[in-house]
UniProtKB/TrEMBL annotation:
GO annotation terms (biological process): oligosaccharide metabolic process; protein N-linked glycosylation
Chief localisation class: endoplasmic reticulum
Keywords assigned by UniProt, alphabetized: Endoplasmic reticulum, Glycoprotein, Glycosidase, Hydrolase, Membrane, Signal-anchor, Transmembrane, Transmembrane helix
Pathway: Glycan metabolism; N-glycan degradation
Family, per entry: Belongs to the glycosyl hydrolase 63 family.
Topology of the protein relative to the lipid bilayer: Single-pass type II membrane protein
InterPro entries: 6-hairpin_glycosidase_sf (IPR008928), 6hp_glycosidase-like_sf (IPR012341), Glyco_hydro_63_C (IPR031335), Glyco_hydro_63N (IPR031631), Glyco_hydro_63N_sf (IPR038518), Glycoside_hydrolase_63 (IPR004888)
Molecular function via GO: Glc3Man9GlcNAc2 oligosaccharide glucosidase activity
Organism in which the protein naturally occurs: Myotis brandtii (Brandt's bat)
Protein name per Swiss-Prot or TrEMBL: Mannosyl-oligosaccharide glucosidase
GO cellular component: endoplasmic reticulum membrane
EC primary class: hydrolase
Keyword Glycoprotein in record: yes
Catalyzed chemical reaction(s): N(4)-(alpha-D-Glc-(1->2)-alpha-D-Glc-(1->3)-alpha-D-Glc-(1->3)-alpha-D-Man-(1->2)-alpha-D-Man-(1->2)-alpha-D-Man-(1->3)-[alpha-D-Man-(1->2)-alpha-D-Man-(1->3)-[alpha-D-Man-(1->2)-alpha-D-Man-(1->6)]-alpha-D-Man-(1->6)]-beta-D-Man-(1->4)-beta-D-GlcNAc-(1->4)-beta-D-GlcNAc)-L-asparaginyl-[protein] + H2O = N(4)-(alpha-D-Glc-(1->3)-alpha-D-Glc-(1->3)-alpha-D-Man-(1->2)-alpha-D-Man-(1->2)-alpha-D-Man-(1->3)-[alpha-D-Man-(1->2)-alpha-D-Man-(1->3)-[alpha-D-Man-(1->2)-alpha-D-Man-(1->6)]-alpha-D-Man-(1->6)]-beta-D-Man-(1->4)-beta-D-GlcNAc-(1->4)-beta-D-GlcNAc)-L-asparaginyl-[protein] + beta-D-glucose
Length: 730
């Protein structure tokens, strides 16, 4: 838990099971063997319940906030540790480590009882006023029977968030004994600290760099422990009379919040009313809760390489630190991508805004706050030390010439349909930034001929790469022209710009921005004209829409010792032509609903979409046709396929929305689109549910061959859109 501020007061939990090889658990890591874990409930604001499976242990962490006072009110956490299986004979000894970290300005004072035990921690900060943390004595789960606990404390200067785990690990010492009355003592790893200030840093630095205070409680499983935060102003304002938010009061508060969550969930998504099974409803609740529980507040400086305006110019410029900025955003994955990603966030907010439109306005406002003077927003936001240590060095620097799909316009379009006065007031304030962002995209990514567009920032044609990647597109290794050049025309980018122009014109009309309507209206009309789209991107020889560029299909990776796999280009030699790479990109005019329901191009796109030799699989639409020479191919020796066949939820959600759209519009393809919608929805939802039941996780992508979850997990970013697919809310 932390305050939403540049210098937060932060509290957290570590735990360890004592025994042969104790592992200290703290941050979510992809390969740590913990899991499944995730939020059963999270309302995005004041309540959550999470389950974590760690070997033989099952932890439940739950919190509730109680408003009051001028500083955000009180909150309490309960952590319950139980054996995974009932009837476990040897019950393990487990330590919970509750810590508080400050960033410099706050004061923390441990209050000690006569026996030297910590009674509570009182503190003060400018943002929170006076506050107090109390760690209550352990009890049996579900009742007030006390359990014997051994206590350790440690208090020192804050080494910085990335170093907390190591600091605790390095100080744990095996000479402590847990001695419950009438039972034989057991050794455990404990923190050999005291409540003297242990400043190991340079003298006098302690107060300036913040404090780290940790309380360790060691108890025999099963047990519950509660940590209570009380705000001075909330207590004075009436919360004191309500009693401490602990014990049976906390149980009642948690239960009433869980009940309120279930009711609001059904009212919002109506899964029960639509006849979805209890298992599907539970998946939907976990999908929403995991996304809301992953929302974070980040603050720091991003590294940016300025746009030199001339592509390929040899001028060497060092990346610059941008001024510090805040970002309130959802994240794709707590374990692997715990930071903001621009094109992911547009999809995240489609779901968040159905639940809590206020949260979406806050997140979009923060993202638009990242706009630079040119109208650019970086596609990956690595803000602050904690985010930086999780990112490989090659991804730290954002390039101010590179774009990303403008998916934030998807929730904006949804706001325009809704007519909520608060949304419209927000859009009025946001319009200048949305307009600047769109104008930057339209101008900076212009293609070689009018009304064509090209993603800047494709990888260079290195001898080790089968097909140089196009990271800015979001579809990383999706095959493009084999030989990158300035002659390329990218279909997906053109469709994104067409969607952007359409949304901006609708917004400008609604706000009465006559000048913007006059400027953007003709552009939107030209980008919406099917004959121009046809001229630039319809490939008669392929029978679908396609990219255009300097291309040959005759490329392969061949082993060439000692260099490893090396790209070999055969015949025919590359020439300017449409790129034969049937997959998600080919469908973009359909996905973004840019085609008229009577369009002659709609039928052929539905044909390839529905053909199991191409894009249709029993688990959803493949990212690349099974008939493509690039299908399932590595891009280099160390780079497995990513967007080369696997099923991705964000694009399947767009496809479902498009099929639903055309299934409700009069036209020659209406019945077929409606039928494909219901079949695709059953395939996608059914597979995500099966994988969730088998593994306990939502996954980054799914295999088109057997449906199994792949990539990182939990991936409760855009895979959470499975809930909107179940609700048929597009």
């Amino acid at each position: 838990m932390k305050t939403r501020s540049p210098q937060p007061l932060l509290t957290g939990l570590m735990w360890a099971q004592h025994g042969t090889t104790p592992k200290l658990r703290h941050t979510c890591e992809q390969g740590d063997g913990v899991g499944p874990y995730g939020w059963e409930f999270h309302d995005g604001l004041s309540f959550g319940r999470q389950h974590i499976q760690d070997g033989a242990l099952r932890l439940t962490t739950e919190f509730v906030k109680r408003p009051g006072g001028q500083h955000g009110g009180d909150w309490s956490w309960r952590v319950t540790v139980e054996p995974q299986a009932s009837g476990t004979s040897a019950l393990p000894l487990v330590s919970l480590f509750f810590y508080v970290v400050t960033d410099g300005k706050e004061v923390l004072v441990p209050e000690v009882e006569a026996k030297g035990q910590l009674k509570f921690i009182s503190g003060h900060s400018s943002e929170l006023g006076d506050f107090r943390f109390t760690l209550l004595a352990p009890t049996s789960p579900g009742n007030t029977t006390p359990k014997y606990g051994s206590y350790n404390v440690f208090w020192s200067s804050n080494p910085g968030l990335p170093l907390l785990t190591e600091m605790v690990k390095s100080r744990l010492n095996g000479w402590f004994q847990h001695r419950p009355p009438g039972a034989s003592p057991e050794r455990y790893l404990g923190l050999p600290g005291s409540l003297k200030w242990e400043d190991r840093g340079p003298s006098g630095q302690g107060q300036g760099q913040g404090q780290f205070l940790i309380q360790q409680v060691t108890v025999k499983v099963p047990f519950s422990v509660e940590l209570v935060f009380e705000s001075g102003s909330a207590q004075a304002g009436g919360n004191q009379a309500l009693g401490q938010l602990a014990g049976s009061l906390l149980t009642q508060a948690l239960e009433s919040h869980a009940e309120a969550f279930r009711e609001r969930f059904e009212k919002t998504f109506q899964l029960q009313k639509k006849g979805l099974s209890p298992e599907e409803q539970a998946l939907g609740q976990a999908a929403l809760s995991g996304l809301l529980g992953g929302i974070g507040y980040f603050y720091g400086q991003g590294l940016v390489l300025p746009d030199m305006k001339v592509e390929g110019s040899e001028q060497k410029v060092a990346p610059a630190l941008f001024p510090p900025v805040p970002l309130f955003t959802a994240v794709p994955s707590r374990s692997f991508f715990p930071r903001g990603f621009l094109w992911d966030e547009g999809f995240h907010q489609l779901l968040v805004q159905r639940w809590d439109p206020r949260l979406t306005r806050e997140a979009l406002g923060h993202w638009l706050g990242l706009l630079n003077a040119d109208g650019w927003i970086g596609r990956e936001q690595v803000l602050g030390d904690e985010a930086r240590v999780r990112v490989p060095p090659e991804f730290l620097v954002q390039r101010a010439a590179h774009a990303n799909p403008p998916t934030l316009l998807l929730p904006v379009a949804h706001m325009l349909e809704g007519n909520d006065p608060a949304d419209l007031a927000f859009l009025r304030r946001a319009f200048p930034r949305l307009h600047a962002w769109f104008s930057w995209l339209h101008q900076s990514q212009a293609g070689p001929v009018p009304l064509s567009y090209r993603w800047r920032g494709r990888d260079s044609a290195l001898p080790t790469l089968l097909n140089p990647k196009t990271l800015p597109s979001g579809l990383d290794d999706y095959p493009r022209a084999s030989h990158p050049s300035a002659t390329e025309r990218h279909l997906d980018l053109r469709c994104w710009v067409a969607l952007g122009a359409r949304v901006l014109v609708q917004l400008a009309e609604q706000l009465g921005e006559a000048e913007a309507v006059a400027e953007l209206g003709p552009l939107a009309a030209s980008l919406g004209a099917e004959e121009i789209l046809d001229e630039l991107h319809w490939a008669p020889e392929l029978g679908v829409f396609a990219d255009f560029g300097n291309h040959t299909k005759a490329v392969h990776l061949k082993p060439r010792p000692p260099h490893g796999l090396v790209r070999v280009v055969g015949r025919p030699h590359p020439r300017l032509q449409y790129v034969d790479a049937l997959g998600y990109v080919s469908l973009f005019p359909l996905l973004l609903r840019l085609l008229d329901p009577h369009s002659s191009r709609l039928g052929p796109l539905l044909d390839v979409l529905a053909d199991s030799r191409h894009l249709w699989s029993p688990f959803g639409l493949r990212s690349l046709a099974a008939s493509s020479p690039f299908y399932g191919q590595r891009n280099s020796e160390h780079d497995p396929p990513y967007w080369r066949g696997a099923v991705w939820l964000n694009v399947n959600y767009l496809a479902l929305g498009a099929l639903h759209h055309y299934g409700h519009l009069k036209g020659p393809h209406q019945a077929r689109a409606a039928k494909l919608h219901s079949e695709l929805r059953a395939n996608v939802v059914g597979n995500v549910l099966r994988q969730y039941q088998a593994t306990g996780f939502l996954w980054e992508q799914y295999s088109d061959r057997d449906g199994r979850g792949m990539g990182c997990r939990p991936f409760q970013g855009w895979t959470s859109l499975v809930l909107l697919a179940m609700a048929e809310d597009y």
